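Worked example 3. Consider a protein that binds adenosine-5'-triphosphate.
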Amino acid sequence: MTNNADNRILALYGGTFDPIHQAHINTVKAMASEAGLEQVILLPNNVPPHRPQPKADAKQRLMMAQLAVSGDPLFLVDDRELRRDALSYTVETLRQYRAEIGSRRPLAFIIGQDSLLTIDTWHEWDKILTLCHILVCKRPGYSLDFPSEQLADWFVQHLVTTPESLHKRPCGYIFLADTPLFPISATNIRERLKNGEDCSDQLAPAVQDYILAQGLYR
Ligand code: ATP
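Given these inputs, the predicted complex is written out as structure tokens:
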């Protein structure tokens, strides 16, 4: 998949994807075009038994991610976090990827703006930029009002405004892209499906068909 002479950004996008929806796909596509990403790897998260469980199981969440991006050469789906029994910390997954691609190739982790505001709750969050860049997609309802001065300072210190910078270093930058706003959340989709409402404008057709066939979120 990769080698040390390859300087293209390898971008990862993690999520519970319960279910994967059109805001996930379309914000990442917009990010890819703005930041010049050729490859984005979707990483469905493992949710360990002691945490509130997703409604869809790991196999179903993986299948929905595969169906959502099937035939689109921008995307690959990696099930490595689902194959682990234990909680998969993002920092550990990033360390694995860094070991696989070597120290020089740019690695990026894509998140929504809501995740940026709580990133200091992630395990070893202050190590993340030593491994990758963080690419942030806008999300309606979330501002840049950081909950602490420490996090606001960290953001400003690492922020770059030109995507070209991301290609020049392997890690260390935060890029806030001007992605379109999609007022969609998996929680809201689950509620609407439970009420028998139509969500065809928020889900890929193949994902919607799979949800119906599996009787999910009823
Ligand atoms: P839930 O509603 O259950 O919290 P979610 O829709 O936020 O789910 P996740 O799988 O938890 O979906 O999110 C994966 C990533 O997608 C996160 O980084 C999140 O910030 C981002 N994301 C989700 N929805 C949007 C959206 N509407 N716009 C931009 N980013 C989003």
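Take a moment to read the result before moving on. The chain has a mean pLDDT of 94. Residues 15-18, 23-24, 27, 111-112, 114-115, 137, 139, 182, 184-187 surround adenosine-5'-triphosphate (CB under 6 Å).
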